[in-house]
Each structure stands twice: as structure tokens, then as C-alpha cells.
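ARCHIVE CARD
Drawer: 12
Card no.: 0347
Subject: one protein chain, sequence and derived structure
Cross-reference: see card 0346
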Amino acid sequence: MATVRTRPDPRKLTDDELELFQAFHLMRRGFDRTLDAQLQHDDGISISELEVLMTLVRSPGRRLRVRDLVEATGWEKSRVSHQVTRMAARGFVERQECAEDRRASWIHLTGEGRRVVVRALPKHSATIRRILFDALTPEQQEHLLGIAQSMNAAITTEDCAPPDACDD
């Protein structure tokens, strides 16, 4: 005799779940690509460069240790290191010795890096406004904020590597 399943198989997505996931994935990727393309076209920088620059602009003394930049961006240390190396070559940041910890170094925003942020931010903000805020009603924005907060909380719960760290 066939039994009726009351809950879907957690290892598979239903057709409705798959449709939602695909729409969400396309939206997220499209948003990122559009922002990156706008920055590349208008200011010759990547979204990753802007993220590092904005993090430094908001930091006391416009500088951070590499480990603090890793924490602020959520990136792997190697990615931060490579990104900083490329940005230093372009004159956006510079490495400075850290007197408090000889093993560490400061990543300091240069005047050129600050000029890039000041120049890029108005057009970048206008692109965000067009794609995100102008496309949604105030009610949709409120719902999206709640959805984003719920998903971020779920991500934070999942984000405990290595896997054994979750067992403590």
C-alpha cells in the first residue's frame, strides 16, 4: 500500500522550491554582476576593490590589520592578501609595519584610494537605488529586509567551520 508523505524529502527540492531558488540565484548573481560592471565601466575598479576601500574608509585611522580586514569582509585570508597586493600596486592602499605585533601589518588607505571612493560612490549608490529601491514598493522593501535578516541569521547559524566547531 502506498503511503502519503507529509513532508518533502529534505535531500531534494520541490518544483516550487527549485523555481524560487533559481529566481533568487539569478537575482543575486545579476545584482552583483551589474554593480561590478557599473564600477568597472565608470571608475575602473571592481566591487571587491570597493568593498576593501569602503571598509578602510570606515575604520579608525583608515587602516586595519589584515586579520581585521579578513573578519570585516568575510573573505579567506589568501583572498584578502591577493586583493591587497593588487590594490597596493594600483596605489589604493599601502602596507605598514605594525609596531604592536611584528608578525602583523596594517593595510592603510592612501589618498588615491580615498579619491577613488569619493568618485565612485555617487554613481554606485545611484545604481543600487535603480536596481533595488526603485524596483520595489516600500512594502516589498520591508518584506525583503525581513527576508534578508532571516536568511542572514540562518547563514550565521550554519557558518561555523570547521564542522566540529558546531558540536561544542
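Annotation on reverse: The CA atoms of residues 69 and 126 lie 26 Å apart. The longest helix spans residues 15-43.
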